[in-house]
Amino acid sequence: MSTIQDKQLTDITVEDIMISSEKVAHVQLNNPLEHALLVLVKSGYSAVPVLDTSYKLVGTIGKTMILNEILGIERFEIEKLSEKRVYEIMDKEVPRLSKEDQFMDGLKMTINYPFVCVADEKGYFDGILTRRAILKQINRDYYQNKAK
Ligand code: 2BA
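A: This is the predicted complex of the input protein with 2BA.
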């Protein structure tokens, strides 16, 4: 079986380089914003996927979105953190890839997004493809070709 090191960029699929779902920090649709902000601050990520109770991908949410939502005229309205829920403010128009998509599909999408969610045909969440994973493969490919 060939390892990822032996593969040409054109032979790599999203599944080869994605972060699988169990390693991805996420929040759920019905979580209060307070919980989402806690997950974001504790994990250190700017944005994470949002899943429903059956682990289907439904959106993404980020720190800036939450801070904008609670920003009043003169102060942060902290009480909104417990009143509002993730589904009310999340981004629902998220681009997605499938595990079978090619490296180049991932490259094109991560030009505009720091990460792209990966889901199956029924919408179940499989993981994320990050810009870091894409750049790592391009870097490896560059040095391998240079050595030839
Ligand atoms: P950001 O959180 O804005 O992170 C930007 C870059 O900073 C990451 O790029 C990574 O290189 C670095 N970074 C941030 N937090 C890190 C941490 N806790 N440990 C190690 N490195 C960290 P990428 O790795 O290309 O990730 C792109 C975006 O994908 C991240 O943007 C974040 O929104 C999301 N992400 C990455 N890994 C994740 C995970 N395990 N769970 C949930 N979201 C993740």
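The first strand starts at residue 19 and ends at 20. Residues 110 and 131 are 6 Å apart (CA to CA).
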